[in-house]
User: What shape does this take?
Amino acid sequence: MIKHVLLFRFRSDVPAGTAEAVLAELETFPGRYPAMRGWACGPNISTRDTSMTHGFVVEFDSERDLLDYLNSSSHEEFVRLRWRPVIERQAIVSFSF
Assistant: This one.
């Protein structure tokens, strides 16, 4: 199994409605990418580190499933057109467990 974790911060000038639309689109990913398992996404509630505003975690059965998702044309289009314009910072970790 592969766990894929993404922590991110929206740019401060992004309107709330735009951020909400991006988060709503993320919530559709498990239905669009059947290899995703255990999807969870939400705002950062930590009082120790507020450098990121949100995070998500998802599991894949194999590294191949993760790579198929990451390299899909629909994922690449989302990242290019919807994600990069509104995200200030991100950290991504993927690991076997």
